[in-house]
């Protein structure tokens, strides 16, 4: 499904709508350039999961955990990882076993671990305009705002 958003708030709203459909163990694999809106989308995911914590980019920490919602949200930044082996070294399997939602920025760096993921591609079309494509198999074929 493809959506156009015209502000960070609209991008967050789309993330919140997707969160309502997510279950334990879901992986979201983001694709998009720096500044595309991946963290804004994740703020929406957190809100949609019922988490009211401030969501920030995990650029320097690799993962931020938000535990206050109906499911935990684990927000990863894989920019500094070289391959999926590095992901396993930071405890990826432990995060999957915790039954939360794993939102992964720079997922292409660990593509081998993203086979079961819902892919969210965010493209900048203008200063605030984004094209967001959500792909995730039949479970999300009927997803819409």
CATH homologous superfamily name?
P-loop containing nucleotide triphosphate hydrolases
Oligomer: single chain
Number of domains: 1
Q: N- to C-terminal separation?
A: 11 Å
Topology as a string of helices (H) and strands (E): EHEHEEHHEEE
Mean pLDDT: 88
Cα gyration radius (Å): 14 Å
How many individual β-strands? Answer: 7
CATH fold type = Rossmann fold
**Helix run count:** 4
**Segments where pLDDT lies below 50 for 5+ residues?**
none
Q: Please estimate the helix content.
A: 10-25%
CATH architecture assignment name: 3-Layer(aba) Sandwich
- Described by the principal axes of the CA atoms, the overall outline is globular
Report the sheet with the most strands, covering strand number, pairing sense and barrel closure: 7 strands, mixed
Report on the architecture of this protein:
The chain has a seven-stranded mixed beta sheet. It has a single domain (2-140), classed as P-loop containing nucleotide triphosphate hydrolases (Rossmann fold, 3-Layer(aba) Sandwich), CATH 3.40.50. The chain has helices at residues 8-19, 38-48, 84-89, 92-97, and strands spanning 2-5, 27-31, 63-66, 73-77, 101-105, 118-124, 130-135. It is globular. A hairpin with a 6-residue loop joins β3 (63-66) and β4. The model has no long low-confidence stretch (mean pLDDT 88). It contains four helices and seven strands; from the N terminus they run βαβαββααβββ. By secondary structure, the protein is α/β, with parallel strands linked by helices.
């Amino acid at each position: 499904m493809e959506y156009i958003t015209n502000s960070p708030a609209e991008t967050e709203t789309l993330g919140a709508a997707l969160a309502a459909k997510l279950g334990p163990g879901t992986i979201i694999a983001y694709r998009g350039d720096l500044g595309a809106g991946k963290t804004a989308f994740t703020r929406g995911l957190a809100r949609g999961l019922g988490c009211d914590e401030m969501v920030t980019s995990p650029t320097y920490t690799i993962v931020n955990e938000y535990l206050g919602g109906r499911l935990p949200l684990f927000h990863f930044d894989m920019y500094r990882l070289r391959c999926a082996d590095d992901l396993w070294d930071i405890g990826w399997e432990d995060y999957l076993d915790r039954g939360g939602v794993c939102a992964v920025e720079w997922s292409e760096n660990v593509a081998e671990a993203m086979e079961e993921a819902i892919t969210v591609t965010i493209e900048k079309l203008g200063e605030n305009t984004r094209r967001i494509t959500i792909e995730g198999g039949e479970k999300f074929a009927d997803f819409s705002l």
